[in-house]
Amino acid sequence: MTLRNKLGKAVVGLLMGCYALLCFFPFFWMILTSLKERVDVINPAVWTFKPILDNYIDVFTKRNLPLNLLNSVIVVSTTVAASVLLGTMAAYGFARFEFKKKESLAFWILSLRMLPPMAVVISFFILGRMLRVLDKQLYLSVIYMSFNIPFAIWMMRGYIEDIPKELEESAWLDGCSRMRGLFSVVIPLVSPGLIATAIFCVIQSWNEFTLAFFLTSFRAKTVPTIVTEFLSVTGVLWGEMSAVGVVAILPILIFAFLIQKQLIRGMTFGAMKE
Amino acid sequence: MGWAAAGLRGLAAARPHPGDDVKRRNEHLIFIAPALVALALVVIFPTIFLYYVSLTNYSLTSGWEAKRFIGLENYFFLLFKDPLFWKSLWLTLLFVLTTVSTELVLGMLIALGLGRLKLSRRLILAIIIIPMVCTPSIIGLMWKLILNTEYGVANYLLGLAGLGKVNWLGVQSAFTSVVLVDLWQWTPFMVLMLHAALTSLPLEPFEAARMDGANAFQTFFGITLPMISRLVLIALILRLIDSIKVFDIIYSLTLGGPGTATELLSLRIYRIGFQHSNMVGRASAYAVIMILAISPFFTRLSGLLNRNAK
Amino acid sequence: MKRKIFSLTMVLLIAAGTQFAAGPAAGDPWVDMIKKTYGGMTITIAATGHTSTDSMRAMVKDFTDATGIKVQWDIMEEGYLRQKLLMEHQSKTGVYDVLMIDAFNLAEYSPSGVALPLKPFLDNKTLTPAWFDYQDLSAAFRNGVGAYNGTIYSVPIAGETRFLGYRKDLFDKYGKKAPKTLDEMLALAKFFNGKEPGLYGIAMRAQRGIQFASGWMTLMYSLGGEFLDQKTWKPTCNTPGTISSLKYYIELLKNAPPDVGVYTHEEAISAFMAGKTAMWLDATAIAPWILDPKKSTVYDKVAFAPPPAGPAGDFGVMAGWGIGISSDVDVKHQNAAWAFITWMTGKANARQYVLGGGTPMRQSLGTDQAILKVHPYLPVMLESLVAADNLVKTGRIWIPPNVKAIKVLEIGGEYGARAFAGELTPEEAMRQAQIECERVMAEK
Description:
CATH architecture of the largest domain in chain C: 3-Layer(aba) Sandwich
Order of helices and strands of chain C: HHEHEHEHHHEEEEHHEHHHEHEEHHHHHH
Radius of gyration of chain B: 24 Å
CATH superfamily of chain B: MetI-like
Number of helices of chain C: 19
Strand content of chain C: 5-15%
Oligomer: heterotrimer
CATH topology of the largest domain in chain C: D-Maltodextrin-Binding Protein, domain 2
Largest sheet of chain C: 5 strands, mixed
Number of helices of chain B: 14
Distance between the termini of chain C: 63 Å
Radius of gyration of chain C: 22 Å
Shape of chain B: globular
CATH class of chain B: Mainly Alpha
Number of domains of chain C: 2
Strand order of the largest sheet of chain C: 2-1-3-11-6
Helix content of chain C: 40-55%
């Protein structure tokens, strides 16, 4: 390895390190804020301080964080499971078949993601009221499918298109139906892509705020909605808010870290194995 | 509602014609129908509601009964009488184009850089997921704290480095700051997508190119880019759609201010429909215009995608 | 050392206060009646984050123990609270029993009937405990915060006015005195702006929209301006008085930190508590934070003064929060809600309420030494209330009592902020604001 190469690698490493630091810093600052007294929050020069756990204690005992976490988990797991399942099946339909106006339909599905939440929340509220499903996790779960399914369809379609048809055809020769072929042959091959899609859906659903806020009041409140509890009339309760922020991220970070290997392998679209 | 009609026509066209292999023709329906039905059920009411309400003067404070049908009056108002509409539209387009293109370029550079690393790659990948995963409303407020000119840590660090204070959220820089925060949050998305694509590329073409004496530029633009172009387009499309709806971050940082420096369309919708105006009818008209305005971009892009796929 | 004394005092005070902490106990006829009729119920309250809310939450255990009524809380940011209440009422969901109502929104809620008029409850001798003493609540707050057009909709839990907080140490160092007029205040702001490294003149709210309007309105009336003529309900955005008050406010804001254009009450208080500004003109409800060493770096360097007077008079702010009853719930829930309200705001529990973080609302507490130790600014606050009363004497209420007032304020705040950002001249901004306000007021 030439000196030039070594130098090049060092520079690249340094730049990547800087970028990672930039990504990490606000999160790091949030952790610090959650451990500080408020007087230290407004004084950035303070780097050594006595950390206090009061914020975390308050957030778990005085607020409903455990319930909110549970609600978030319920909503997210159900909506992602359903969306990925339905989305993958539909993606298969788009990938393997030709029919008239296929692309128009695909476009319409994608356009559903363009609806700004602010614009549709009132209609969902009225609908929810009529059907008496307000403040229920299931309602949120179903509504979230409106942006998760289109995403799943568009992502999975690409993965499935990359799997050569021959593999399926040999399964059909063995007497397998098309549907079984999908589940026994295709899906195992695209499982990394499936996981990638699932992760993105999880992130989007976990962090969704507008719809969750207006469509729940007590029982089904998810984690993002409780942020506004800390925007008090006197001022922002930085300590508690950051504590919630940290707690809200941890499940996702752990989840993502555990399956990141699949994630990376899985986002393979490319012009593959030529 | 052209696209809805197109979709329905597509389904209709798939219905069996006499004499055809009926089962064959409809097979795709079995796979697509469940998702389609779920989607249709969920969005049909809000979509109809949105378009209908945009033709009324429904206001949350006056109530449902008090609303009147006013036809296209909201639209006329927005297009001709609301001076801020065009500014909002312009700011939104500027924002979307700037962030998405920068994220693409930065994402590519970083993804290429990541490819050169061996040991630290996994660690760095794990770290750069963080911006995407943070709850937007919370991290937006954290950024506001960080970017505060007087007691924020950004200016503090700049001060340590000997540079001056920056007025991050002042009139001049607010828009840039908002763009920067969005870049922080979403560049990782591009990095991950592009990195995965790059690592899946076969080695042969690159070795051949090297033997032919091609330099880095030629290799990149001649081989790498064309091979991952489909992925790049998909990532672009997904990112564009989400970028237009940007709301949480701007709401936390500036609420559309100072003045109207960061009043993008989604904030205008919020301001009209929710903040003390509560003119839901007019806000709905805004949303409709927003959707219609950006549709051409997507038709173009997905057209590119389809051509590319063949 | 000071810190130690402070915390010791707090402990002693709270210990002293706790002899009142239990509140009315079993044996009190009202408590028994409530427990028998409504015990076992659960009521819900929609509230916003506020020290008063914290105090109520600390008191709720005693309430539940005594009456058997359980309470569920939904706490959210004030803007969202308003939205939620309107939406819930639209569909008559009846999700909330007790509502925390911002005086700002009272005019909006009453025609649409979000909250019930409370007079029937106040007059009801059985439902209202003997120790409630409604009249003891400061009249200014009773009428300014809890009533609209003569109808009482809420019982005030956090009345506030605005006053001046200033850095006594800096003022003493440069031989300055607290300003008595707005001109003096502007001069002081200019004086201190940049006087020391990292120091600015003043911190105030200026984020576009209602925040800007709120900050501006602190001084608007004293400068001869107003958004609405409260007799004819014609918008008066572009009168000379309003325009000159806007110019004053813009001039004042030039002596604030450079990103004041995104300042809400949060940034204003944080900037002052971080020692970045010499003055702060904002709500009395936030004053306790300034004196708290856990929150403020200047807790021992601050003094308070009533809001300075202007050329048009000495008019102060009247704002705050109250708790009322939702109109979408059945009678049983209404009565249980009323039991909650009287418990939290009644005279018997007032001391506990204030010591727990609630805002002092009652005349009887005005000379209470224990309270004064915790809220040393109370005399200044009472003095400031005189200015608030001055406005009422001219036949006007700080927040114009009109259902569309809040929209007008929002418009005024939006255009004012744009003028401050330099997008429009004050005259042009107000001209456009006037047009929009006229349209809003004319709509059915």
